[in-house]
Design a protein that fits this description.
Blueprint (H helix, E strand, L loop, with lengths): L4 E5 L6 H13 L7 E5 L5 H7 L5 E3 L18 H6 L4 E4 L2 H6 L4 H13 L3 E6 L3 H5 L3 H13 L10 E5 L13 H19 L1 H6 L2 E4 L7 H5 L6 E4 L6 H8 L3
Parallel strand pairs: 1-2, 1-8, 2-3, 4-5, 5-6, 6-7, 7-8
Helix pairs in contact: 1-11, 5-7, 7-8
Bound molecules: 2-phosphoglycolic acid.
């Protein structure tokens, strides 16, 4: 049985006191679903968030990390630094990292390796831009993003990898992929994995959908057989909305 996961990506939002208030709100709400819940605050708030959520079943995760262990990489954060403040899971390859910080598939492959070498779990994001969708090239694009960054791995590594399909045209735009579009792509992703690693591995990997998931559309998207959860941006900044999405399972 694949894990169901709902992860909130807070992006570059919330200073320390706003982070504390959001966590206070999150702790008040009762979780009625079996989905694993994660939230990703900014680096400066990771430890406080980790500490505040210790006794709960909300995992605090990071939005990014560098591939090197340490050294002259001004402004960067390593896997071992994340681990040292209690973080076990990292989001890698978000489209905003790819677009604004030029993160390539090759760089992401190194980041994935570094995370796994540090026994971290990875939420690996990818997705096509609107032109690719319009030209019918979306499966090729997604297929190569996955192959280029992940297919050097052994099958066993996929025990520590969660995939997140996030069509770039749906992120923060209010436009979601239809549940059918999400299902079709997730099925394609699972087939891509199965072709390389076999059905058992492919069937065990959780594939999340991200892109304007809201309380009013979560249930329909999550009802699709190959959609195992969501990576939530905007709606994760509001505790009530976020838990409405979590509890949509
Ligand atoms: P959104 O962001 O829910 O605001 O569209 C999703 C994401 O970037 O992970």
């Amino acid at each position: 049985m694949r894990k169901q996961i709902v992860a909130g990506n807070w992006k570059m939002n919330n200073d320390l006191s706003q982070t504390e208030s959001l966590i206070t709100e999150l702790k008040k709400i009762k979780k009625t679903s079996t989905a694993e819940v994660m939230v990703a605050p900014t680096f400066t708030n990771l430890y406080n968030a980790f500490d505040a959520l210790r006794e709960t079943d909300i995992e605090v995760i990071a939005q990014n990390m560098h591939f090197a262990a340490n050294g002259a990489y001004t402004g960067e954060i390593s896997a071992s630094m994340l681990k040292s403040v209690g973080i076990q899971t990292v989001i890698l390859g978000h489209s905003e990292r790819r677009e604004y910080f030029n993160e390539s598939d090759a760089m992401l492959a190194k980041k994935v390796d570094a995370a796994l070498a540090n026994s971290m779990r990875v939420i690996f994001c990818f997705g096509e831009v609107l032109e690719d969708r319009k030209s019918g090239n979306h499966e090729n694009v997604v297929g190569s993003q996955i192959k280029n960054a992940l297919f050097h791995l052994e099958a066993d590594a996929f025990k520590h990898i969660v995939l997140a399909y996030e069509p770039v045209w749906a992120i923060g735009t209010g436009e979601t992929a239809s549940p059918e579009q999400a299902q079709d792509m997730h099925a394609f992703i699972r087939k891509t994995l199965a072709d390389k690693y076999g059905k058992t591995v492919a069937d065990s990997v959780s594939i999340l959908y991200g892109g304007s998931v809201k309380p009013n559309n979560a249930q329909e998207i999550f009802s699709k057989p190959d959609v195992d959860g969501g990576l939530i941006g905007g709606a994760a900044l509001n505790a009530t909305d976020f838990f409405a999405i979590v509890n949509a399972f």
